[in-house]
Design a protein that fits this description.
With 386 residues, the protein is mostly beta strands. It has strands at residues 20-22, 35-37, 42-48, 57-62, 67-73, 79-86, 91-97, 106-111, 116-122, 128-134, 140-146, 155-160, 165-171, 177-184, 189-195, 204-209, 214-218, 230-233, 238-244, 253-258, 263-269, 275-282, 287-293, 302-307, 312-318, 324-331, 336-342, 351-356, 361-367, 373-375, 383-385.
């Protein structure tokens, strides 16, 4: 069965404006049915078909437990197996990419505590048995795996919060990585993401700075290097970003959550890699993740923000011109630190994965394609450590 991927997608139940929708029941302790155990304080999720069975899987970095958790999907919205793999200290980020050119997605973690980046190579069956460490970092916090120079090989960009830089490594197609360039990223860079702001088919990078309350845009030059950063001021403590044409002018825009001001900032792109502030929208308290998509099926892009302190989701319904209307908040049982998505039950409708930092768990919610979703109840997973 062919896998259809929606990355960074969430859906919601649309009731009257101003209400609160209870989506998850809070059970005693950590025995939430349908929740999958992760490492302690999970901090990042990657969604991909890791074992090539046509079903979407998840890899989750457990920042306080030196491990990543791999949840193998069953294609019905559940989890067939739960495996964990040891990495270096402080894994705060995980991403997937084919590092050695064998057609199977490998995993990359940024280990802020150890000052290393771990490469875990896939054996073709969703098992990760070969491990390699990249050094030369001090505090890596985020990784992008993509082909920056269009040679068909996966490269890496790493945001290092202690070096205040983005380090670019060129891949050799066999799992080897060589440092080729470094770029300033502002004080305490935090989130690094890829997009194509000028729509030239070349990967651009955007990195947030917690210390300067800015984002820096690195426009790709197709040779594996990037232009010098273009810096744009936002609100306090910028975190996750979503990229799409929110205004309908055929230019890529940026939506970014700013935790210090409980705000989502919308930056309009000009198609050349430049951004200007268009609007701000209030969120819940201490927002972190944000996801864009047409969740109501009206052909217009919406935004959903996860709020850690108020333990809810802010729903912003877009009108296609850059304006958003706030719909009812969605109550969740704990602090959503990251959101991801895909068609986990393969019914052609986008589903959701929520990762809760303080519960040390993740959960899947199945979308109905009309803006509603319900939690999927997973069969008992089979914990195993490899």
């Amino acid at each position: 069965m062919r896998t259809r991927e929606w990355l960074w997608i969430i859906v919601f139940s649309g009731l009257g404006v101003g209400g609160v929708i209870p989506v998850l029941a809070q059970n005693s302790g950590h025995g939430h049915e349908g929740y999958e155990a992760t490492g302690r304080f999970p901090h990042s999720v990657a969604v991909a078909d890791l074992n090539k069975d046509g079903h979407l899987d998840m890899a989750i970095a457990g920042s306080a437990e030196r491990k990543i958790t791999v949840l193998l999907g069953d294609g019905r919205g559940g989890v067939a197996a739960n495996h964990s793999y040891e990495v270096a200290r402080g894994p705060v980020w995980v991403t997937a990419g084919d590092l050695d050119g064998d057609g199977h997605p490998d995993l990359v973690t940024a280990n802020s505590g150890a000052g290393t980046v771990t490469l875990y190579f896939n054996d073709g069956h969703g098992r990760f048995v070969k491990r390699q460490e990249l050094e030369g970092f001090k505090g890596p916090v985020a990784v992008v795996a993509a082909d920056f120079d269009r040679d068909g090989r996966t490269d890496l960009a790493v945001a290092d919060t202690l070096l205040s830089t983005v380090l670019v490594h060129r891949g050799d197609g066999k799992g080897g990585m060589n440092l080729v360039a470094q770029y300033p990223a502002g004080s305490r860079p935090h989130i690094l993401a890829q997009t194509d702001l000028n729509r030239d088919g070349v990967v651009d990078l955007v990195v947030t700075s917690l210390g300067q309350h800015t984002i820096s845009v690195l426009v790709g030059k197709a040779d594996g290097t990037f232009e010098e950063p273009r810096v744009f001021k936002v609100k306090r403590f910028p975190h996750y970003m979503a990229f799409a044409d929110f205004t309908g002018d055929a230019h890529e825009d940026v939506a970014i959550v700013c935790a210090g001001d409980d705000t989502l900032v919308l930056l309009a792109g000009d198609g050349k890699g430049n951004l200007r502030k268009l609007a701000e929208f209030p969120t819940g308290v201490n927002p972190h993740p944000v996801i864009a998509g047409d969740f109501t099926g009206d052909g217009r892009l919406d935004l959903i923000v996860g709020n850690r302190s108020t333990k809810n989701l802010t729903i912003l319904k877009g009108d296609g011109t850059g304006q958003f209307t706030r719909l009812p908040d969605v109550k969740v049982p704990d602090d959503p630190i990251v959101l991801g998505g895909g068609d986990f039950n393969e019914d052609g409708k986008p589903d959701l994965v929520l990762v809760f930092a303080s519960l040390h768990r993740a959960a899947i919610y199945l979308g109905d394609g009309r803006g509603g979703f319900t939690p999927a109840v997973s069969p008992a997973s089979r914990p195993a450590r490899q």
